[in-house]
Amino acid sequence: MKSSRWLHIFALAILALSTIVVLAQEEGHGHGRGHDKHVNEHGSKDRQSHEEHGRKGHGYDDRDREIMHGWYEDHQGNLPPGLAKKDRLSPGLERQLELRGTLPPGLRARIHAVPVDLERELPPPPPNCEHVLIGGHVVLLNSRTSVVIDVFHLGF
After folding, report:
1. In degrees, to the nearest 5, what angle opens at C-alpha 80 toward C-alphas 79 and 82?
2. Running DSSP on this structure, what letter comes out for residue 146?
3. How far is the CA of 133 from the CAs of 47, 101, 124, in angstroms?
4. Rounded to whole angstroms, how far apart are CA atoms 42 and 62?
5. What was the pLDDT predicted at 78?
6. Which positions of the chain have pLDDT values less than 50?
7. How many domains does the chain have?
8. Are 119 and 75 members of one domain?
9. For 89, how many CA atoms within 13 A lie in the half-sphere containing its CB?
10. Can you give the pLDDT at residue 67?
11. Do 10 and 77 share a domain, yes or no?
12. What pLDDT does 5 receive?
């Protein structure tokens, strides 16, 4: 009798644990680090829907993206370092520019300042953050920790 009772308790425990695992995977969509990012309709690598990622997450919102796109269209003939075609990132470096990831040393060496006229049009960055250019991208970067807060790809 006792072994039958322990068998039932063990089976219930296994069932409960498997339910918890399934629920945890659904909440996180079962994706590992960096494997669920995609390029949204605004040209930005993003893990969340754009609406979730707006001001609340200290990222770029639709207005910011329109400003950056408009600025790029107006300055295509005279692009600063960091946005010129020669500054474009290789596919391997492009993959390293990961949202919420730490910027690797190879990309830190390629940081350029955002032009003053574009910086004036964008809202001030959150504390300890700055807008920078890296290989055709405007990046909202935590300057203390080198964590990428948001990325906006300016088209080539």
Report:
1. 110
2. -
3. 21, 16, 16
4. 8
5. 83
6. 26-56
7. 2
8. yes
9. 23
10. 93
11. no
12. 81
